[in-house]
Amino acid sequence: MIDPQEPAPTAAYGPPEVMRPARLPVRSGPGRLLVLAAVFVCAACGLVYELELVALASYLTGDSVTQSSVVLSVMVFAMGLGALLAKRLRCRAAVGFGAIEAGLALVGGCSAMALYACFAWFGQSRSVLVGFSLVIGVLIGAEVPLLMTLIQRVRQQDAGGAVADLFAADYVGALVGGLAFPFLLLPVLGQLTGALATGTVNAVAGGALVLWLFRRDLTRRARRRLLAVNALVLVLLAVAVLLVAPFERAARHAVYGSAARVVLQTGVQEVVMTGGAGPGGGAGHARKGSGGPLALYLDGRLEVSADDERGYHRALVHPAVAGGPHGRVVVLGGGDGLAVREVLRHRAVRSVTVVELDPGVSDLARTDPGLSALNRHALDDPRVRVVTADAFDWLRAASARCGRRCRGPYDVIVSDLPDPRMTAGTKLYSQEFYGLVARLLAPDGRLAVHAAAPEARPRVFWTVESTLRSAGLATVPYEAPGRRGGESARPVSGGGAGRAAAGTRYWGFILAGHHARDLDTAPSSRPPSAARAVLPDGARPLSGARIGGLPPSTLMHPRYG
């Protein structure tokens, strides 16, 4: 039995090594606040790294839901792993925390450059994304046990109170980092410099805490080594900041195949334009100094190629506009002005409303010599009005203004929107979206929709068609030939003209309206005087190839993947 008069083991032998009071240069109260401040800063930096990986992965691959799931799940798993591994460092918590913060600052700060470099020069970045998520997650997870040890060594308190204080500082720091990324770092510094600046803050905060507040816990040798490591990390990050501009130029050249003529971060997306600078260059002809035919990229995806955009936009616009009344037209997307150019070829058009999410694209379409020449200054036409808005929100507001008994004020609606497989574009190909379109479409009006390539992604194409029919619209699916292949390209979204790996690429479109009679595309089925939605040369209807039984896509159950 244990004698009740015998002192407890902790009283007899003193506190465990990891819980011995730290010898601080300040009192325990200010020291504890300094530790919590370090927790705050490190949490903010950690969340910035996480958001940076999610954003870059979404930009480079396009599927933000999948990429966010991969980054978050791997990182959370790695944080648990890091917390377990950190148990071995608790006996030397100060030096362990300093080394971890130096490593996290270097890896997290350079992660954006590494991912972009892999995408630019090797064409893929998914495995690198998983690797960085794993390493950063392990390092972030290792912070918490070490910080818990340090805060307890500053001043002993009950475990519940220590955990509450630690996580309060951690969560508030995460809030600040989460808000700083989209509203400060991304628009002011950009992806690469923002990550490097975050790494610098991380290294300074971690190094200052250990090398000043807990310096008496370190041996002279440990202090020198930790100081050297932190200095090296800061030097490497500073050098990387100086190299950001030439690195971006070289990477863009590798990605786009030629020097980028226009690079614009609009707050919505990154806009890059190559070629088309010389006389006639916007029309697809290479001239001296133009850099070749114009190409417009949004977040790294080819949207417009002057080589083949004309065939794409004619196939999208003319069957809808020429098939009946077309006095009032709406173009959803199409801020580049190219679809509007085709609409304005029809003299009976009285007004065109362009609903574009990114004002930077429409401004570029007006001011850039190459792009404005390509769209024939369509956005400067007095009949054209450009509205900066999300297409879904604009349709909902317009439908509300129209009222319950609205018969549809628009003769033609052209949907020139991002690819349905992208998360941002999924709602723009939903049953709810097309229900709003149907309300605004005149009784004899027509809707033209760009869908996926029928041969390359048949289930996506026919899901769009099924979704249109579920909204009560009659449909005529058709395809039109693009340019011949032989050249490779990255994934193409929305209004862009892509290139197939071989052979001829066919773009997929769907013509829709309230009644099937208003969508007649057969050349001999109507008198010559009647309006008819004649398909362009080379286009062919696809009704016979329909994949049956596909459910519609809704906001709550998107079917595109």
UniProtKB/TrEMBL annotation:
Domain of life the protein comes from: Bacteria
InterPro entries: MFS_trans_sf (IPR036259), PABS (IPR030374), PABS_CS (IPR030373), SAM-dependent_MTases_sf (IPR029063), Spermi_synthase (IPR001045)
Family recorded in the similarity comment: Belongs to the spermidine/spermine synthase family.
Residue numbers binding spermidine: 313, 336
Recorded GO MF terms: spermidine synthase activity
Pathway membership, UniProt: Amine and polyamine biosynthesis; spermidine biosynthesis; spermidine from putrescine: step 1/1
Annotated transmembrane regions: 33-49, 69-86, 98-122, 128-151, 163-186, 192-214, 226-247
Compartments, as annotated in UniProt: Cell membrane
NCBIfam families per record: PRK03612.1
Catalytic function, reaction form: S-adenosyl 3-(methylsulfanyl)propylamine + putrescine = S-methyl-5'-thioadenosine + spermidine + H(+)
Stretch list, region Disordered: 518-561
Assembly behavior: Homodimer or homotetramer.
EC number(s) stated in the UniProt entry for this protein: 2.5.1.16
Annotated positions binding S-methyl-5'-thioadenosine: 269, 356, 390-391
Residues annotated as domain PABS: 238-514
Membrane association type: Multi-pass membrane protein
Active site, per annotation: 416
Alphabetic keyword roster: Cell membrane, Membrane, Polyamine biosynthesis, Spermidine biosynthesis, Transferase, Transmembrane, Transmembrane helix
Protein name stated in the entry: Polyamine aminopropyltransferase
Enzyme class label: transferase
